[in-house]
C-alpha cells in the first residue's frame, strides 16, 4: 500500500503534547500514540451538496474503477441542513488533499430498498475487487428515528460509486460501525447495531434497549458482486439509547485483533469489550462478560482501530482524546487530538505504513492526520 503523505495542499499544523502516562507498553516498547505529536488537516470533507458531520473513514487498499490505492474514503452523516441521519455522500481524498466525490446516493430502487432511507454512518469498508460497503442508519427529515423495523441496511457500491445492492436483515438494525477481514474467496464483515425493536414492523423505536454485534459472511469472486451467505450474532446485550445530540448511542467502534478477538467500544458506559473467536463462533458472547477495560481515560469512546503493534486506539466522543490500550487491557497512553473536542471525533484508522492516525474532525468537517 502507498504511504499517506501530506503534500502542499495540507493545511497548517497544530502541535499537541502527549499527556502524561506510562512511558512504555507491556511489551517494553514506547506506546504507539506517543511516537507522534502533530495534528494536520488533510482536506475538507464537505462535498458539493453541503453534507457535513463526517463519520466513516477507510483507506482504499487497491486501485479499481474510480478508487485509487492509498486514497481515503469518508462518509457524511448529516445533510447541509445539519440534520442527523440524512447524509448521503462519500468523498474520496488523496494523500495530497485533493477531494473528489465518490458517491452521492439518491432514493434507492424498490428492489434494493433500505428501510427508512439513507443516512450514512461510520460503517465503511472496501472489499477486494473495489466493492464498497457503507452502513446506513437513516432519520426522518425532522431528525427522528423512523418507525420501521429493522431500520437501515448495508449498501453495496461498485468501484465507481454506483449502488449495486442492499443487504437487509432483521439482524442488521441500525448498523453503526464496521470492520472486516478478507481472505481468498471470502470475507467476514463485522457490524455493530445500535437499535433493537421489539414489537410490530412499524412500531416507534423505544428510548433505549439492548442490541447486537453481527458477523456477515461473504463470498468473493472476481468480476461479480460479493454475495452475503449468512449472518451470525457474535455479541449481544449491548446497551443503546436515543440521544438528542448524537441521534443514538451504543456499541460503536470495532477492531479485529490478530488472534481473531473482536473488540467493541461501547459509548454508553465507556468500556471496551472483547469477543473471542469472532471469526468462527456460532453463538453470541454476552456484553459485560469480557470487559477489556472501562473508565479511566475512556470518555464516551466512539471510533476504534488497531495500531500496527497490536494495541487498540479508541477516540473519545466526550473530550477529543485518543486512548491506547494493550490487548491485556492496560491503558498506556492518552493524547488530546482535539483539545475541547467533545463531539468532534468519530471514525479513525491508521494510514498505510502505520505512521500516524487518520481521523475525521466533526468540528471542522475535515479529515485530519496525527503524525510525527
Description:
This protein is mainly beta. It has a single domain, classed as Neuraminidase. It is 0% helix and 45% strand. The chain has no helices and 27 strands. The chain has strands at residues 13-15, 38-44, 52-59, 72-78, 89-93, 99-104, 120-126, 132-136, 153-157, 163-167, 175-183, 186-193, 208-219, 227-243, 247-249, 251-256, 262-266, 271-275, 285-286, 291-294, 301-306, 312-316, 321-325, 331-336, 345-349, 357-361, 366-371. Strands 11, 12, 13, 14, 15 and 19 form a six-stranded mixed β-sheet that branches. A five-stranded antiparallel β-sheet has the order 1-2-27-26-25, with no helix packed on it. Strands 3-4-5-6 form a four-stranded antiparallel β-sheet, with no helix packed on it. Strand 17 (262-266) and strand 18 form a beta hairpin. The model is unreliable at 1-27 (pLDDT under 50).
Q: How far do the termini sit from each other? A: 20 Å
- Fraction of helical residues: under 10%
User: Into which percentage range does the β-strand content fall?
Assistant: 35-45%
Write out the CATH superfamily name. Answer: TolB, C-terminal domain
What is the N-to-C order of secondary-structure elements (H for helix, E for strand)? EEEEEEEEEEEEEEEEEEEEEEEEEEE
Report the CATH architecture: 6 Propeller
Structural class: mainly beta
